[in-house]
Amino acid sequence: MAQKPTFRNPLLQVRDLRVWLRRDGLETAVVDTVSFSLARGETLAVAGESGCGKTVTALALGRLLPRRLFRQQGEARLEGDDLLALDEKDIVRERGRGLAYVFQDPSTALNPVMQTGAQVAEAARLHGLNQPRAAALEFLRMAGLSDPAQCARSYPHELSGGMQQRVMIAMALACRPRVLVADEPTTALDVTTQAEILRLLIELQARMGMAILLVTHNLVLVANLAQRLLIMYAGEIVESGPVTAVLRHPAHPYTRALIRAAPRLSGPRGLLEGIEGRVPMPGQWPDGCRFHPRCPEVQARCRNERPPWQCLPKGQKVRCHCLKSATW
Fold first, then answer.
1. pLDDT in tens, 160-191
2. Among 311, 198, 321, 186, which Cα is nearest to 245's?
3. Between β-strands 317-319 and 236-242, what pairing exists: parallel, antiparallel or unpaired?
4. Global model pTM greater than 0.85
5. Are strands 179-183 and 99-102 parallel, antiparallel or unpaired?
6. What class has domain 10-98+177-265+278-327?
7. Rounded to an integer, what distance in angstroms lies between the CA atom of residue 259 and that of residue 255?
8. CA atoms within 13 A on the CB side of 125
9. What integer best gives the mean pLDDT of the chain?
10. Cα 42 to Cα 211: distance, rounded to the nearest angstrom
11. What are the extents of the domains in the chain?
């Protein structure tokens, strides 16, 4: 499990981020008052089921959500500059140099009619690197491709899924980002390739000193890569803290349910425990604790009172009425 180094002086500070979806003349909240910080060289993971708001949160930071469909509010300060308040010219410059993205499915993120080398070179050129073609070959090599020249001449459909993802990582590196946003970067890959991409991200982070915001539902990936963890449910963070503390001593019933549903290679054998019900759709969030309709520990006040944040001894913060001292 990843150890927790000491990180100071936050590189990225997000405060009270809220996102609304515009539909049929109405606005529906999809992300609700999300706040967190990220230091240089640190990896922060955001975990939860599909539909909890993880990807929307990540895309909102770089203002990649279409404005005709989404409205956002709050602060996202990258070394002092509020990304959510920059004009269009400045936010375009910060995309890549400030925040670079590696998306879940590289086959849909890469341009199918451009050679991959040209795509990496374009990113290098836009961010001011001299000799972008030569730089593209170097970044492809850094991304772990054994024959960068051959890869550069290839179109995306001529590459395997793992090679396509490495090209996406090379494009992100070409921007020399301060923060790498990795949105489910290994989900579409086989297990062996997932491990290779994981090792690559760790090596590149150590070499370049960049921070990583990892969006995932894979708790094994979290344990091996991240130092801190945010658990999201129904558009809000319900638990946060050091990875070791959250995974070994989960305080929120939702966090415990996620861990019970994850497969294990060690420990006692048994059937995986699914979580009954489903994540409520935006606009259908229940009153009180949003997890209460699915929670086996629900109490009367959970249905009516929104839980306050509580701080625990191991550095965790949790939003829950049903804390048990045995969990920490």
1. 988 998 999 999 888 889 999 999 887 777 77
2. 311
3. antiparallel
4. yes
5. parallel
6. alpha beta
7. 6
8. 10
9. 89
10. 5
11. 10-98+177-265+278-327, 105-176
